[in-house]
Structures are given as structure tokens and as C-alpha cells.
Amino acid sequence: MAFNGDGPFNKRMRTDGESVGQKSNVHYYTDNDYYTPDQNDGDNNGPYGGFSDYDNQPRRRKGEPETPNHVLLMTILNPAYPITVDVIHTICQPYGNVLRIVIFKKNGVQAMVEFDGIDPATRAREGLQGADIYSGCCTLRIEYAKPSKLNVYKNDAESWDFTNPNVGGGMNGQMGGGPRGGGGLFNSPMPDSGGLMGSGQGQGGPFMGGAGGPGGASLSAMGQPQPGLPQQGAVLMVYGLNKDKMNADRIFNLLCLYGNIVRIKFLKTKEGCAMVQMGDALAVERAVANLNNTTFFGCKMQLGYSKQAFLADVQQPYDLPDGTPSFKDYMGNKNNRFINPEMASKNRIQPPSKILHFFNTPPGLDEETLKQVFLEGEVVEPKSIKLFPSKTERSSSGLLEFNNISEALEALVVGNHAPIPNPNSKFPFIMKLCFSSSRHIPNKMAE
């Protein structure tokens, strides 16, 4: 993410169809303006998702001073890239604890952000006012909002209650992980790969906060589009997939070993071809370097770079042969393994091998239970299994050996993130797989 260095009112963004010197019919904001969204006709499906009580807030008149509040109203001008909860949280989190976010799009793109106090809200307003979320676009205009609390009825890409990760049944596959439910991405702070004071250089440009405030954290780890990378950006082309065996989740299971996955889209006009938006260009490079020309399910997979900066949402995806949707959004999925620096450092980048390492499985796991996962997925079961001596009673881990790399690849795309029943809880363990650097399974494991 690149923050433009201009102050709040040193510039005005043109709309896409406006040339230099042309007057704009787009309203923009000064210290004497306050914008209140139109009423949503009293329903609960309007821009606030059930926030009809906000619509009747009094409008601040010209010349009337603003009253500081811990809730901010952000208007995003020239929103050339998708604006989600992830994006808003990432730019706001450095200023203080964010409690709730609501994004609404009835009048352009706007967001309300509730902090845990007036001080962090004031810092965010001063630091972000007039800044560009991405270089040259997505300009922020920020006012104090009128509501004292945001009501969130559902955690998804456009609303999130950080005090209650299970509100509304979770993310339903978008920011939740595993078997559709549970916690979301924001149990840990967002990564900041560029530093807070503008000394870092991200892929979209220098981090320079608007109005002298601290710059925001880089969005590259979150998989946001990175301006300036049209030829080798964060979108990967995948060719040669077995159209009957592969789907979005199985692509995720394989590529998540090399970087965060944001969106996956199969191409209807090209069978066995998909596009994958990853967290950053480095993740794409790792995937290409390690997986290009690998063979599994009887097909040779080839990987390349897309010229697209990001994948747009597909509102009505078609069904793949197995009945699953051709497009899925994994932004914030907790099975992503590079969510923050601590998680990323635990990943060992390995090329495919015939030995898989499994972990996050129930204590006391037996070999038959493991074999059943692969049999149910209609792939070859491992020829050898080695359970590591347990250092804790909380989980188990070990190694799986297959006859060749192709069998191991098939087992990984099917078995990675498979639920394993937990005898001590109604919630299953989500088994995780990765390629091992071991060339064979030793007969005796070190105690």
C-alpha cells in the first residue's frame, strides 16, 4: 500500500472520465462539509446492513464545528481497487484498537470505523486524512461520525465485529477457515512490512502518511492489489489442471504452502485453466519456482504470470464438474499461512517431494484414521506413516511417505485442511500438510 504524501486539501482527485482542468461534478470535502448518507428506506438491507437508526442522525451545517467521536466516517474517493474490512482494518490498526467496521456502497464507497476511544480515532483522522490507500487512487476523506456504536449482524468482507468473531455465524467461508466458522483473521495484529514512519518502500511506493501522520502498514501480505506490478504482479495463471478432479479449494490447498491466497477463479472458456490472486508478487514467484510443470491427476500443471493486478469479485460463478463454485474468495481465510510475520517464519518453502509432513491432528491419532482421509478423497493412501513422539497432549504430527511425487501431490490437494474428528470436542482438528525435506522416513525417530 502506498500512501500519497499530499496533505488533506493540497489536491483533489479526478474521476476516471475527467481530464486535467475539467470541472468535476463529484462532491468532495472540506472542513466545512459533513456528509450524511441517504436514508435506506427503513429496511435492514441498506448500506448499513441494519443500521437504519444511523440515517436519521442530524447533519452538521456549514460552519458548525465537528464533535470528536470514537467512530469515524470514511469516504473513499476514486476507489479503483476493492475496499474491504481487511483494507480498512490494516490502515486503521496502527492508530489504535479497532472494535467494529462497516462498509457501505449506496453513495460511492464509505466505511464507518469504531475505535475503543476518541484519542485513537483522532489520531487516525489526522494521520489518514487526504491519504491515498493505493498510489493515485482510493483517497480518504474522514469525518467524525454521529453514532456512538456500530451494530454488526454478520462478520464478512463488508462488516466485522472484532469483539465477537462469531457474530452472525462467522464468515461463511470468506474470512473464516476450515469447516466454515470459528475465529477470523484478526486474532493477531495485521502485518506491517514497511514500518510506521515512511522509511520502508513497499511494492506500491513509499509509505507516506497524509498530513504528517504515520504511514499505514503494507497490504502486500493481505493480498491487496499492488500498483506498479502489471507484468509480474500477484495474479498467477494456472494451466493444465484436471477439470474433473480440481476445484478452488484444492488449488488453495496446494498454493497456500507458498503464500496467502486471496481469490481463485476458473475460466469457463478454457477448461483446466484458473487464475489465482496471491498475497504478493513474491508468493507468485515461489509458486512458479516450486510447482511449475508438476504432474498429478494425470495432467502436467503449468504456471505463469498474469498481467492483471487483481481478480474482481464474480457475483454469479458457474459450477465446476464437482458442483463447487468456479470462483471463491479466501481473503482472510485462517488457513492462509502467511497472515503475519510470526506465522510466515514457521513455513519452510520446499519443492514437492514424496514425503509429506502432517500436523495439527488429534492426540492419539492412529494410522487407520489417517489412511481413511485419503481413501475418502479417492487418492492413494501413504505406503508408510511415522507418528512423531508427542511433546504435548494437545495435538500430534508425523510424516507420510508415498510411492512418488505425483501421489504425494494428489494426497496434499485432497487431504490438506481435512477435518479429523476430535474425541474430546465437537470441533474437529483441521489437518495441515506440507512437503517434507526428508528423503525417506527413518526407522527410529529421535525422542
From TrEMBL:
GO terms for molecular function: RNA binding. It comes from the Eukaryota. GO terms for biological process: mRNA processing. The keyword RNA-binding applies. This is RRM domain-containing protein. Residues 70-147, 234-308 form the RRM domain. It comes from Scylla olivacea. It holds the Pfam family RRM_8. Keywords: Phosphoprotein, Repeat, RNA-binding. Residues 1-66 are annotated as: Disordered. Gene3D superfamilies: 3.30.70.330. SMART domains: RRM. One of its GO terms (cellular component) is nucleus. NCBIfam families: hnRNP-L_PTB. PROSITE patterns: RRM.
